[in-house]
Design a protein that fits this description.
CATH superfamily of chain B: HPr-like
Distance between the termini of chain A: 38 Å
Structural class of chain A: alpha+beta
Distance between the termini of chain B: 23 Å
Mean pLDDT of chain B: 82
Number of helices of chain B: 3
Largest interface: A-B, 29 and 21 residues
Mean pLDDT of chain A: 81
Radius of gyration of chain A: 32 Å
Number of strands of chain A: 22
Low-confidence stretches of chain A: 427-452, 537-554
Strand content of chain A: 5-15%
Strand order of the largest sheet of chain A: 17-13-14-15-19-11-10-21
Largest sheet of chain B: 4 strands, antiparallel
CATH architecture of chain B: 2-Layer Sandwich
Oligomer: heterodimer
Helix content of chain A: 40-55%
Shape of chain B: globular
Strand content of chain B: 25-35%
CATH topology of chain B: Histidine-containing Protein, Chain: A
Number of domains of chain B: 1
Order of helices and strands of chain B: EHEEHEH
Number of helices of chain A: 26
Radius of gyration of chain B: 11 Å
CATH class of chain B: Alpha Beta
């Protein structure tokens, strides 16, 4: 049960990634646009001569500013669609459309209810807002998430639904937007009653956090960091950043909720003199330990590595530290010590919490789009001016943090003899890191498209480490980790995954997270592409290892199967036995024979002649598994009237006689002789179509099995 | 992992028809469902393998399910065996 909850939360967390990935870009537009249209800023840097209202440059910047804001203002819709996409198992585009529709329907239903109740004036103060021009309840991204999760659940349940013949046009994926509309109409009405209660609850909780002061900020920081190893931090901080939990403010006459929304509304506003620290306290704390602290930790690990290992370890640590400094993506560096020295991670969490608290105390008002790297510090701290943001304190505290991390970590590593990179007793682990490092540089970097073979070899390692293609139920990724749901967690090999360049592996039952760092998106795409190629079909380790081996090169090609009897073609759906007509045994076609002879429909190998001689299974040279079943229920004849001509394991050619049988006796015994030919592994093909009808002759193609 | 042991009472054993229905049943679940006879284990979803095991009346097989919905899967499979085999 615990594993299941983790699995679901993990998927929710990663489904946030699509909309979140947009934020840095939107933030860039908003950051640059708003900085250079802010009067105070222009005066400070003496730019009023070039940039003034009405000038071309000002207009361009204002467009950037407003377009960036558009993203932040409509995040709920983006989450409704993004979460639906992330949580839908298949046919994701339909889930996206349904998410958008459901979001509009829900808000419109709420709007109508508000109108019926007497309009906005009748509602509690600050409880309503305007979303996409619809007057609705202030639900923040929660509204979007409620829609996204619900629509995905509806989608996963109904996207394959079959409706009665007359309504069949509305079946399958087309049913999903329809049911979503109906359900969210009701949800909207219910929300009108439920949400105000939730709003009160959130407001109370938010007040509690806001009023808990510095200690509250510290605890927030600790929890946020402590959740990183589980990948659940997004689920934790998002409500603070995006909903009333992180506070509310009135900016330029509009109610804004959520720490990040407040910051960006103030950024876009030309009237804000100083950024609200009550909002940025949930963000600014990241800067000191990400830009300064963690590089200090990296230096400590480098200095503590054995001298002969430093060169090797250095490459790993420098790239990880730079990633943290520039982008604020900290997992690569954090995971180098999380697994080998959990005690260091505990200290890291406490320091990180302290960093949030110090920023709160020093009234630092620097927000961020995604995380606390140099890019965000520059845009939202330095460029906004120290008067508005007090960013200088980040540097002051950061300088202290660099040494704090460096000395604490050095001390811990030496005193406790922690096995950070380059300090291992035997050589094995560092070799893994070397290889990982090498691969990360050559194979899976952003330019990996030019080296497909290397990226394939990484994919092979990952696939093997995850227990083969057959073991993988679902693959996705967030900012830094590959998130996989496997069928059998026991088949996952940490060693192989680390060889593929991973800095760590987290497992919770069947939910596996493999940490690679920011290049994970490329790794995931390569892996998914690779899984779709022929070589990946065989999940067994040895076979995947040698893609040049003939067996691994086997692929599911399209093939044609010829008639297995002389007779009249019968569509499979019209066969009297439900096991065949329902398609349970696979797709195919049946023949009502004129004579008592069964022939091979293709070249292949006889897998099994049933003891009673009434059926035979064979595998074609191309890998299609075919079952030929003479008559219905004929197993009950116990072998009477059937005369097999082939044995198990025998190779046969198309048109070879397989079994002869006494047509008249079988009919006389009361059994139909309709003989289905089905492709048992139909799942591995996209479509099986019937090419003939009426009278067919042995040798004539009757089925097209398409890969 | 959940499992149960069953002695096949159907006089015809697991031939093509019940094998197909059994595979269809097993495919409804995300759990990996397997059948073991005399130390030989096959996935229930691999129809050819299942049929080639040639399970007959009186044979004792162990059916197992492992995965997120293993409880539901094993319950469905157990009732399938009891009703059809």
């Amino acid at each position: 049960m615990k594993d299941k909850i983790f699995g679901v939360l993990q998927r929710v967390g990663r489904s946030f990634m699509l909309p979140i990935a947009l934020l840095p870009v939107a933030g860039l537009l908003l950051g640059i646009g708003s900085s250079f249209t802010n009067q105070t800023m222009l005066e400070t840097y003496n730019l009023t001569g070039i940039i003034y209202p009405g000038s071309v440059l000002y207009t361009v910047l204002d467009i950037m500013n407003q377009c960036g804001s558009a993203v932040f203002n409509n995040l709920a819709l983006l989450f409704a669609m993004g979460v639906a996409i992330g949580m839908a198992k298949k046919e994701k585009e339909v889930a996206a459309l349904s998410g958008a529709i459901a979001y509009l329907v829900m808000n419109t239903a709420i709007s109508a209810m508000i109108h019926a109740a007497g309009g906005v004036e009748a509602m509690a103060a600050n409880s309503t807002t305007s979303s996409l021009g619809i007057t609705t309840l202030q639900m923040g991204v929660f509204g979007g998430i409620i829609v996204g999760l619900g629509v995905a659940a509806l989608h996963n349940r109904f996207y394959k639904i079959r409706l009665p013949q007359v309504l069949s046009f509305f079946g399958g994926t087309r049913f999903v937007p329809i049911i979503s509309t109906a359900v969210y109409l009701v949800v909207g009405v219910l929300m009108f009653y439920i949400w105000p209660v939730v709003q009160n609850g959130i407001a109370l909780l938010g007040n509690l956090v806001v009023n808990s002061g510095y200690a509250g900020t510290w605890i927030y920081g600790i929890i946020e960091r402590a959740l990183i190893p589980f990948g659940l931090h997004h689920v934790f901080y998002m409500p603070f950043w995006q909903t009333a939990l992180g506070g509310s403010a009135v900016i330029d006459g509009t109610v804004v909720q959520g720490a990040q929304n407040i910051f960006f509304a103030e950024l876009a506003s030309k009237n804000a003199d100083v950024f609200s620290v009550s909002a940025t306290r949930f963000m600014s704390g990241k800067f000191p330990f990400m830009i300064f602290g963690l590089p200090g930790a990296a230096l400590a690990m480098y200095r503590c590595a054995r001298p002969e290992k430093r060169k090797v370890v250095g490459g790993l640590l420098i790239s990880a530290a730079l990633t943290a400094m520039l982008t604020g993506i900290t997992e690569p560096i954090e995971f180098t010590f999380l697994f080998v020295a959990p005690a260091m991670y505990v200290v890291h969490c406490i320091y990180a919490g302290l960093s949030y608290m110090l920023m709160h105390i020093f009234r630092v008002g620097v927000g961020m789009t995604f995380s606390g790297g140099m890019i965000d510090l520059t845009l939202f701290g330095i460029l906004q001016g120290n008067a508005k943001t007090h960013w200088i304190w980040i540097v002051v505290v950061g300088a202290v943090y660099f040494f704090l991390y460096y000395f604490t970590f050095s001390l811990m590593i030496r005193k406790m003899n922690l096995k950070t990179p380059g300090r291992e007793e035997d050589d094995e682990e560092t070799k893994l890191f070397t290889r990982a490092d090498f691969k990360a540089k050559t194979g899976v970097g952003p330019d990996s498209s030019s080296a497909p073979n290397v990226s394939d070899s990484v994919s092979v390692l990952i696939l093997r480490g995850l227990g083969g293609k057959q073991n993988i139920a679902d693959v996705d990724c967030c900012a830094t980790r590959l998130r996989v749901t496997v069928i059998d967690g026991g088949k996952v090999s940490d060693t192989l995954l680390k060889q593929s360049g991973a800095s760590g592996v987290i497992r919770k039952g069947n939910g596996i997270q493999v940490i690679y760092g920011p290049q994970v998106a490329v790794i995931k795409s390569n892996l998914v592409d690779f899984m779709e190629t022929d070589g990946a079909d065989l999940g067994e380790a040895e076979e995947v290892l040698q893609p040049e081996s003939p067996k691994a090169a086997k692929s599911m090609q399209s093939i044609r199967l010829s008639a297995h009897m002389n007779g009249t073609l019968v569509p499979l759906a019209e066969v009297a036995d439900e096991a065949f007509s329902s398609g349970a045994l696979g797709g195919g076609a049946a023949i009502e024979p004129y004579e008592g002879k069964l022939f091979a429909p293709a070249d292949g190998t006889v897998e099994a002649v049933f003891e009673t001689g009434h059926a035979l299974s064979m595998t074609t040279a191309e890998g299609a598994e075919i079952l030929l079943h003479i008559g219905m229920d004929t197993i009950k004849l116990g072998g009477k009237f059937f005369y097999p001509h082939v044995e198990n394991g025998q190779n046969v050619k198309q048109g070879d006689l397989l079994i002869s049988f006494d047509l008249n006796e079988i009919s006389a015994a009361g059994y139909p002789v309709t003989t289905p030919m089905v492709v048992c592994n139909s799942d591995e093909y996209t479509e099986i179509s019937v090419l003939a009808d009426g009278t067919v002759k042995v040798g004539e193609d009757i089925l097209h099995v398409q890969s | 992992m959940k499992q149960f042991t069953y002695t096949v009472s159907d006089p015809l054993g697991i031939h093509a028809r019940p094998a197909g229905l059994l595979a269809k049943e097993a495919k409804r679940f995300s759990s990996v469902c397997t059948i073991t006879k005399e130390g030989q284990t096959k996935k229930l979803t691999q129809l050819m393998m299942l049929m080639s095991m040639g399970v007959k009346q009186g044979d004792t097989v162990t059916v197992a399910a492992e995965g997120e919905d293993e409880e539901a899967a094993i319950a469905a499979l157990q009732s399938f065996f009891e009703n059809h085999l």
